[in-house]
Design a protein that fits this description.
Layout (H helix, E strand, L loop, with lengths): L1 H24 L1 H9 L8 H8 L3 H13 L3 E6 L2 E6 L2 H10 L24 E3 L2 E3 H13 L3 E4 L2 E4 L1 H9 L4 H5 L7 E4 L6 E4 H13 L3 E3 L6 E3 L1 H11 L3
Antiparallel strand pairs: 1-2, 3-4, 5-6, 7-8, 9-10
């Protein structure tokens, strides 16, 4: 009886996994989820334009993603805005991109670094790309972060370092999400900092004009102030 119950549980998990895989494997839904990786909320009309489909068709796809709890919806007036359900969904989507063969990524490197999304971009609510990986590695090298399994631990020195930026580690740990975990960068094939700490660091850099978001893009640009600050604090350049 116990074996039969176990078998039923396994079958149910396999069915649910297969259903999620099917949802993610659809080209239209994949484009919608990829578009939402910038952390913004979009209407069905905007997402239909991204996927080059009708609004009615977009609504059908969005309903399936909502039912699977991959998306959430917020109502504001007459409009409904769709967002990724949580950071874990964003992490899965970004990690899936790391399966793209290296040969298919080479065209991304033809532009100067300052104009290249592979160099610096947002990954949902944290920094990714070559710059994101370099900052993470610098934080580790300076003894600010310590990698343990799939997480990052802030050291005693790290507490002081982040405190000088006005980032309260204790408050971030109280949030109902991962504090600091490794996120596999799909262009660098190395890890960058994600979680509430990664989000707080990105927010700080934007608010203090170290980096600037590029309009209608996940790409971010590093300012001259950002270069100086990152070099002074992390010896990055």
């Amino acid at each position: 009886m116990n074996f039969y119950f176990y078998y039923l549980c396994i079958m149910e998990i396999e069915d649910k996994f297969g259903y999620i895989a099917t949802l993610l494997g659809d080209k239209v839904r994949a484009i919608m989820l990829w578009s939402l990786l910038d952390g913004k909320a979009y209407t069905a009309t905007e997402l239909s334009i991204c996927a080059n489909i009708s609004k009615q068709s977009a609504s059908n796809h969005l309903a399936k993603l909502l039912d699977a709890q991959l998306l959430a919806v917020e109502k504001q007036g007459r409009h409904r805005y769709y967002i990724l359900a949580n950071p874990r969904v964003a992490q899965v989507i970004e990690s899936m991109a790391s399966l793209i063969p290296d040969a298919h990524l080479k065209p991304m490197n033809t532009k100067p670094k300052s104009q290249n999304i592979a160099y610096a971009r947002t990954c949902y609510d944290h920094l990714a790309g070559e710059l994101g990986v370099k900052i993470t590695n610098a934080l580790i090298k300076k003894g600010i972060l310590k990698p343990i399994d799939n997480e990052y631990v802030v050291t005693t020195y790290g507490l002081k370092w982040f405190s000088e930026l006005g980032i309260n580690i204790d408050e971030l740990k109280l949030k109902k999400r991962s504090f600091a975990h490794k996120c596999l960068d799909w262009t660098e094939r190395k890890h960058h900092l994600a979680g509430s700490l990664g989000a707080a660091l990105l927010e700080y850099m934007i608010c203090n004009d170290w980096i600037r978001k590029k309009k209608n893009s996940r790409e971010v640009l590093v300012t001259s102030l950002g270069i100086n600050e990152l070099n002074n604090r992390l010896k990055l350049f």
